[in-house]
Amino acid sequence: MDKEVEYRAIPGFTGYQASSDGKIWSFWVNKGKRGVAIGEARREIRGGVDKDGYRKVILCDGKRSRKYKRVHALILETFVGSCPNGCIGAHNDGNNQNNNINNLRWSTQKDNIDDKKAHGTWQCGENHGNSIVTSEQVIAIRSMRESGMTVKNIADTFNLKIRHVYQIVSKSTWRHV
Questions:
Q1: 3-class DSSP state for residue 75?
Q2: CB-based contact 55:71 (threshold 8 Å)
Q3: Over 60: is that where the pLDDT of 12 sits?
Q4: Helix 135-146 × helix 151-158 angle, to 10°
Q5: pLDDT: which is higher, 42 or 98
């Protein structure tokens, strides 16, 4: 059975709380011409999704200063503490929408990439949105070059730019293959 939801003040942001179930809450109330003030009622901030697919919210200081923050980072900072040097927020299950504190941890970039590979969410090679070749084509390109075929002929064969073939052959791209 799930534990009861816990609410804590977000460090550095007066009038906001994070909940252990991965939500961000505000106590700020618009008082019209009198400005804003902290009220009694808590309301959830829905926020949006950033360019990388993570939930984000905008937190204000009651004046005009706004900060865009990823929800998972706010949850971790609130319930675990500040981010250690060299670490990032990681989702244990690979679902970047699941911001429950039980699904989050501070992790190194390398460990996070290993997790993404295990979950199948790593955007590398064919899984990357800008990919123009497949793993099989990369292997063929390298084999053709090793057998003496010119980079220009390989580029023509695969309808690629010469610089893309150089990048593949030199392993400046597709290092994992």
A1: helix
A2: yes
A3: yes
A4: 150
A5: 98
Distance CA 72, CA 15 (A): 18
For a pLDDT cut of 70, what percent of the chain falls above it? 86
CA-CA distances (angstroms) from residue 87 to 13, 47, 111, 123? 22, 24, 10, 20
pLDDT tens digits, residue range 88-144? 999 988 888 999 999 999 999 888 888 877 877 766 667 666 678 888 888 999 999
Amino acid symbol at 104: L
CA 97/CA 4 separation, integer angstroms: 20
Q: What residues are paired with 107 via a beta bridge? A: 88
Q: What are phi and psi of 48, to 5 degrees?
A: -150, -160
Nearest to residue 107, comparing CAs of 146, 71, 137, 80?
A: 80
Which 3 state secondary structure label does DSSP give 153? helix
Tell me the mean pLDDT in the region 39-45.
Answer: 83
**8 Å CB contact between 101 and 75:** yes
CB contact set of 135 (below 8 Å; sequence gap of 6+): 125, 126, 174, 177
Q: Do residues 144 and 152 lie in contact, with contact meaning Cβ atoms separated by under 8 Å?
A: no
Sheet containing strand 48-49, strands side by side: 48-49, 55-60, 66-70
Q: What is the pLDDT of residue 31?
A: 62
Tokens 């319930």 correspond to 79
Q: What are phi and psi of 135, to 5 degrees?
A: -60, -40
